[in-house]
Amino acid sequence: MTGGDALRKAAVIVPVITIEGEPYLILTRRSRKLKSHPGQISFPGGIRDNGEELWETALREIEEEIGVDRDSVLFVHCLEMTETLVSRIEVHPFLALLSRRVFRLNKEEVEELIFVELSLFQRTKEEVIRLPSGEETIKYRLPGLVVWGATARIIAGSIDEILRKLSESGHINPFDED
């Protein structure tokens, strides 16, 4: 890449809802009809439009992909950026709480919503994957589901921060121990 080439930027929302007192991440399975990353597990999000702020991109995409009204998305925290290793896109994740559980899937982009208890990622050790390019990424092998690449790296790199920010915000208490 030459010095003048900038990576394309994307924004995703790392959406959390509470079910029976437990925090759950909402993941999507991308449509198998898509040219980019078909069938993969991801967070709602996409490529930034010219001049658009990244948070705006994330809000637009969560509305377009899974029908979540932006008024029900409560920003919590900016998480650490990662880069997709194959398509070379800079992905900026935003942790957010959803105040309503109303979803309308855009079937052209999203095949299904997947709700995963946050603690499952804490209990599951990530595995290293070596890509054909020689680069390494990670995956989580969950019951009936594999989460890998940028999505897995966002989760692995920020799970403790997610729990801390959710606790600080007063929306959950993930540290209830007997």
Automatic annotation (TrEMBL):
- Give the CDD domains listed for this entry: NUDIX_CoAse_Nudt7 (cd03426)
Q: Output the InterPro entries linked to this UniProt entry.
A: CoAse (IPR045121), NUDIX_hydrolase-like_dom_sf (IPR015797), NUDIX_hydrolase_CS (IPR020084), NUDIX_hydrolase_dom (IPR000086)
Q: Name the source's superkingdom.
A: Bacteria
List residues of the Nudix hydrolase domain: 6-142
> What Gene3D superfamilies does the record tag this protein with?
Nucleoside Triphosphate Pyrophosphohydrolase
Alphabetized, the UniProt keywords read:
Hydrolase, Magnesium, Manganese, Metal-binding
Keyword Metal-binding listed: yes
SUPFAM superfamilies, sorted: Nudix
GO molecular function list: coenzyme A diphosphatase activity; metal ion binding
- Cofactor(s) listed in the protein's UniProt record: Mn(2+); Mg(2+)
The answer to whether keyword Kinase applies is: no
Record protein name field: Nudix hydrolase domain-containing protein
Tell me what organism the protein belongs to: Kosmotoga pacifica
Q: Which lineage do the record's taxonomy fields give for this organism? A: Bacteria, Thermotogati, Thermotogota, Thermotogae, Kosmotogales
